[in-house]
Write a structure and sequence with these properties.
Blueprint lengths: L2 H14 L4 H20 L10 H13 L4 H21 L25 H13 L7 H17 L3 H5 L6 E2 L4 E5 L5 E5 L2 H13 L24 H14 L8 H16 L2 H8 L4 H4 L1 H17 L10
Antiparallel strand pairs: 1-2, 2-3
Length: 308
């Protein structure tokens, strides 16, 4: 079976599955790369493909500057093509199944330091804006304090109902990814902000189950994710922040500051609701960066002397 004919048959198969135009275009681009590599070596028969040749091509693309993420996508396209060929009886085995592309480096999340986080969550009380509604200012303070106090995801915060909160006990029950529920502590500042918001909040419009949302608009309707993002951006601009602040930045800041103070990775994993501790381990890198900065500033032999 010719590689070009097998690729055409595979792309036609994908078109019949009603995939998006962008997905089809991505498959076509990646398989064009495969065809170009095969043409350069005079390979036309798909049965002549083997693992060593594919591994060599993968390395060649890597040397050519293709990013790990692009290499992973290319290999996935090749693997899916060969899987299709096995089903059609054109190949006995998928020689790409055992190949792995280089892992993409995880980007460290941006965060606020302890002082900047405290300043930001209190900023609505310090920043005066024209035509500001005092009630909504108190609501926004409660949103910011709760984000930073308990490390909530954006969807967890907007999905909160008053029945999920026990302010006297300092607890909040949230439902996160995979519909998993966890109980989190709520700090003193966040509890006080929530109590002030509850005293002046407009009557909430209950949902179909009769639940009353915690965070609402002036008309009592539950705030959506986009509205909360816009409020954080508003307060960042009003306070003259030198960077864009978004909900996940407060969650990252919460996690890093907790790990920095406690050193307990498992506890931070539970608080964040991560199913896999490897997801939480990125914060150990952030913690090391903090330690490295402290070392550089404090250790007498951390820097070269002027005489060196």
């Amino acid at each position: 079976m010719q590689l070009a004919a097998a690729t055409d048959a595979f792309l036609l198969h994908l078109q019949q599955k009603n995939l998006s135009p962008n997905t089809l275009a991505a498959y076509r681009r990646d398989l064009d790369k495969l065809q170009q590599l095969a043409d350069a070596e005079g390979l036309t028969d798909i049965q002549k493909l083997d693992e060593m040749r594919l591994r060599s091509w993968l390395a060649q693309l890597h040397r050519g500057g293709l990013s790990p993420k692009s290499l992973q996508r290319w290999l996935s396209a090749v693997r899916t093509l060969l899987r299709f060929c096995v089903r059609e009886g054109w190949l006995k085995a998928n020689v790409a199944e055992g190949l792995r592309a280089p892992k993409a480096a995880k980007k460290l999340p941006r965060l606020l330091d302890v002082d900047a986080a405290a300043q930001f969550v209190e900023s609505p009380l310090d920043v005066t804006t024209n035509n500001s509604d005092e009630r909504l200012t108190l609501r926004d303070v409660a949103i910011l304090e709760l984000f930073y106090s308990s490390g909530l995801r954006l969807s967890e915060l907007t999905g909160l109902n008053w029945s999920d909160l026990d302010l006297a006990g300092g607890e909040v029950r949230v439902t996160g990814k995979g519909n998993k529920t966890r109980l989190l502590p709520v700090g003193q500042h966040a509890r006080r902000a929530l109590e002030e918001w509850r005293r002046c909040a407009p009557a909430a419009v209950a949902d179909e189950r009769g639940a009353e949302p915690v965070f609402t608009s002036a008309k009592g309707r539950r705030l959506g994710n986009r509205a909360v993002q816009q409020r954080l951006a508003h307060w960042a601009r009003a306070g003259g922040a030198d960077q864009r602040v978004h909900p996940h930045m407060l969650r990252h800041s919460f996690a890093s500051h907790m790990l920095e103070s406690s050193g307990d990775l498992r506890a931070v994993q539970e608080l964040l609701g991560h199913a896999d501790i490897s997801t939480t381990q990125i914060y150990t890198h952030l913690d090391f960066q903090h330690l490295a900065r402290v070392y550089d500033k404090a250790h007498p032999r951390a820097h070269k002397s002027d005489d060196d």
